[in-house]
Structures are given as C-alpha cells and as structure tokens.
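Subject: mismatched residue count in predicted assembly?

I count 702 residues in my input, but I want to confirm that the predicted structure covers every chain. Input:
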Amino acid sequence: MMSDVIIKTNGLTKDYGKGRGVFDINLEVHKGEVFGFVGTNGSGKTTTIRNMMGFIRPDSGSSTIGGLDSWKSSADIMKNVSYVPGEIAFPALKTGTEFLKSQAKYLGVTDFKYMNHIIELLQLDPTANLKRMSKGMKQKTAIVAALMGEKQILVLDEPTTGLDPLMREAFLELIREEKQKGHTIFMSSHIFEEIESVCDRVAMIKDGHLIATTSLYDLRHPAMKDFIIEFEQIPQKQQFIETAPFSAAGTDANTCTVQCSVEQLDTLFNMLKNYQIVNLQEIHLSLQQQFMRAYKEGLTQNGNK
Amino acid sequence: METNKKTARFFSKPLMGQTIKANWGLCVAILLIMILLGNVMNYAMSMMATEKSDVDVTEYQENFYTCLGALATYDTMTQQELSYDDFISGDNEAAYETAFEMLNAQADMDLSTKGFQEAIDGLSQSDISLEKYVKQFEYVYALNQTNGVFDKEELTISEMLTVTLDMMGVSSDMVEKMSEMNPASMMNQMYYTAMGLLPIFILIVILANSLISSQVDRGSMAYVLSTPTKRSAVAITQMVFMIIVPLLIIAIVCATRIGTTYLFYDEVNVPGILALFGGMYILVEAVCGLCYMGSCIFSQSRKSMAFGGGLAVWFFLASMIGLFGSENMVNTGMGVEELSVFNKLTLVGLYDVDALSTVGTGSVDTAFVWKLLILLAVAIVTYAIGAVRFSKKDLPL
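Triage response: the counts match. Full output below for your records.
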C-alpha cells in the first residue's frame, strides 16, 4: 500500500431526510492507530460505520478500506476487517460454541488458540444457550466472534455496551494488545473515559456532521498548560500577576489562573519559590470537556437545536 | 496482509450448514404432515373406488328381467308360484325347465334355466344386491300392467322417480349429473390444489422470511456479511436451499404415494403420479420465488411476511373457492360455475390437475404444458429479481 492510510472516507454522505443521516464525513485512519468515534445517540456513528463496511451505499462521496471501495468490494475488504455490530442479534443457532464454530468456518479460522485466549480474557462461557445470554454475554460472544479472525483492521460499533466495568477494562486491555500487534482499530463509543484511555485520535460527530478531530496525544501532552494558584495573601497574588512573564489573571480573592508553555514551567516554579502558596492545581482538559466545548461550538455554528 | 481464506462469491458452505441447522426441524415436521395427508387421502380414494364397481351389468339386467317377466306370465297362466327366491333354493329346477320350454314354444323366445342362472351370476358382480333388482322388477311389472287413469299414458319407473324428486324440491337434472360425477377426479383436485398445498405453502412462507428478511431485520446477517462472503453468495445459497427443500419434500411424498398406491390399487399409473407431483413442485417453486423476492426486497421481517404470507394465503383461498366452481362440484350441487373465475386469480389455477393426471394414459391432454411453463417463468424471474435486489440494496446491519 502506498500510504499508511487504512480507512478513508471522502465527503461521505448518506441522507435519510429530515436532517437524519451523515453529511460530508472526511476521516482518515492510519495504520496501527486506535481511532475513536464519539457522538451522542443518533448522531450518525452507526450510519458511518455501515457505509465503511459496505452495508449501505453512500449518496455521494466514498469510503475505502485498504484502498478498496467499501460498497463495490465489500467482501474483499472483509478479508482484513473484523466487525462487531452495534446491535447484537445472533443467527438461529443453539449455543455460543456452535455460533463461534460456524463463524470460524466463515472466516476460515482453523487455529483456535487466539480465540481461546480472548474467551479466557473476557471470562466468557460459550457453552451457554445463545437466546438466554445476558446482554453482556452476548456482547462478549460478538467480540470473540469478530476478534478470532486476527484481522489487520477492527471496526467496533459501541463494543463495550453491556459490559461491566471489570470486563470493560479487560476489553480495553485486549484493544491495547491488538494495537501492539500493529492492527488498526476503529471504535465508536459514547463513553469518553474508555476512548480517552485507549485511543490515539478521536473524531466527534454531531447530527451527522464531523465537528472535530482531536489527537489524544495533544490532549495528554498539551503545549500550553493551565494552572490555578492560590496565594496566602492577596498582595502577593497581585505582585505575581504583575511580574509574571506569561498570561496570568486573577480570579476571586487570592487565587489566579496561569497559562504557560511547557518550556516556561521552570521559570514558573522558580518564581513561585518566593511566594507562600496554599494550593497549586493543573487544569486538565478531559476529552469530555473538549467534546462539550466542540459540541457547543457546533451548536452556535449550525444554529440548530 | 491477505489471509488464505478465499472470498465466497456464489456459494457459502458455512451459511448452508447454518441454514440447515436452523430449519431442518420445521422441514421434517411439514414433510411428515404431507406424507400423512397424501397417503390417507390415497387410502380414502381407494376405498371409494372399490365401493363403486364399474362392471357393466346392463345386459345381464335385461336378461334377468326378461326371465322374471316370463316367470310372472307363466305364474298367472298356470296358477303356480315360481319366483327368483324359489329358483335359487334349487330344489325345483325341473319345474323351471318346463316353464321356460312352454314359454319358448308360445312366444318364440330363447329362455332356459342356464340362461337365467347366467343372468343371475352376471348381476351379482354389481354392488347392488339381487333382492333390490327383484324388488325393482316388481315395480316395473306392476306399472306395466296398467296405464294412467286420466291421461291413458304409459307409466314408467323413471318418470315416477322424476316426479317424486321434483315434489321433494330436488332437481332431477342434478341427480343425473351426480351419478355421472367422477369422485376420483374431485378428490384429486382437492388434494393437489388445496389440502396438499397448504402445509408446504406454510413452510415456504416461513422459510423465505427467515432465510433473508428476518436475518437482515434482526441484524444477524451482519455476522455473515462481515466475513469474506459476497452478498451474491448469500442470495444464491439461500436460493439453493429454497429450491432443494421443496424438491426433497415433494419427492419423498411422491415416493410414499406411489408406494401406497401399489398397496391399495391393482394397477398404478406411475407416470401420472410423477407428473402430478412434478407439476406441484413447479407450482410450489413459483410461490417460493415470490416469497423469496419479497424477503429480498423488504428489510423488515413483518413486511416480507405480509407479502409472502399474504400471497400464499390468497393463492390457497382462491384455489379453494375456485374448487367450488369446478365441474365436479357444480354437478353435485355444492358449487356454482361462476366461482371458477377464482381459478384465474391464483397461480394454483395454472396447475392443471385434470390434464396432468392424463399423463401415462392413452389420451394425454397437453394443456398443462404451457401453464407449467408460465409457472416456471414466474419462479425464474422472481428468484432473479430477489437475488439482484438483495445484492444492491442498503442493509441496516
């Protein structure tokens, strides 16, 4: 492959009318990347994924995986793609084992070592009756069914739905393992914490429009840092604000906020040695806050709802 | 980057395995019902056939009545009491010989005890007892003795019967037609165009829906299509299942039917039975194709079910109603000819049971050929439309 772009959508549009659908989605997922796709319910995550998997035909624009058009060569794409659907409904088979076996035949899997590894990790009992499985168990079974192919690309539609916090952690561990192997992972979710803990980059979608694509590396390693500093006395605060070589602003009583670049950190701490400080706190911008911010910007931009 | 698994383009073995696993129970149940229905029906028809013997006894009846008439004349002439009952008791044969000889001499007839005996033997082949013939002769003889009091016209049994029936409000025409009715043809019609079809119609409606539409609606199709399996492979695999299952079921039912026919009848028209079931298979495939097309077009299970089920129910009902417009039913007074319009409103109407059952007999009615060709065309076109549509539509998976 010429570039390392694995999944690419180009002006992808699927209009279901009444403002539903996805509009002009441009995404690029690079090889070996864990790409998060967040958005509220009904914002178009699943529609985008269905387009990428070739289940629906885009009205305009295109989606390619590994250089192949999703709609035209869907079946060939599937040689390298595993998919966990958002809605879990199994075929009319009796037990989980039966289902996994039949799935292995479709995928041409003959070595069950890796499958058993995932089953163990997720603590799944596949011998249970498919119809009587709880939501979490069904989800685990679906994950095992998809991952056992050990494909290069994983597309997961809200894969942690129904999993308890322990299992969610185990699942995220699995994702990290996959990433270690150099596999490309595209997962949608509305739980920010899990996206934040495994993803390299995140795209946010709202009402069918992409509103932001953020690198979580930037989020974790911002060039500019914000601090809240609380002084013992107000005059000291005033003095600090006046002499500081970076932007600082007083808030209430004896606290102030400071924004400085990473290189300036040394200067900041040297300065602070001369003051009596009660509290020093870094303002960490979580993905959720970032999302909320982008979301609100999206609101004012689109001007609807 | 490539795995060694090849893309399934036209057929998917695992999918076939899955389809068989999920549906074999239903198929076997329907098969058993159809075997039961077909063979019980066959048994009932064989019973009907033995009850109504088709030996022609008209000649014997004539001879018998001539002898009885002669005896009656002789009795009145000679004040004797010779009768059929007396004759068969057999201890007075000489008296009969004398009587017949005398009558032969008088009226230039050719009567003999031997002839009388032959007539009796011949008549006993019919299902009607000889006592009944004797009784009927009493009426015929009595009515012959005199003419009508007012119109001076001859009085006959058949006229008396007609008048009596008319008095009772029963059309004498109908009674006549009823005797001409062919119960075997009616039972055939009933079995092949209505009762025999119902179970397999139910099966194909359920199968067509569960093989495609229901899996798309529920989302379980995602597990097939997220593997290197083309949609065309899914469409064709399921189509193959829907072509083979009715074939197997109908073939097995046909085989058991031929078997039991050998058991119940002396002679078996094997090509005829094969033609009837072959025609039934083509009809079933036409309906199957329609259901399959519905299943491929609609992504919602209930819509596909409404389409396939609705059509199948309509075909069945229309054919049932059409049955009451068939010649046999009209003849029995249970039907009205106008109802036969319904046969034109159902695909089942293109399944010409009467023409098909002539296969293997001396005079083959080939009217069934073009009708079956239409059914075949319906099946091919609907299967093709369904498969193409499924390969091209948006799937909510």
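Residues 13-51+182-392 of chain B form one domain. Marking this ticket as 'not a bug'.
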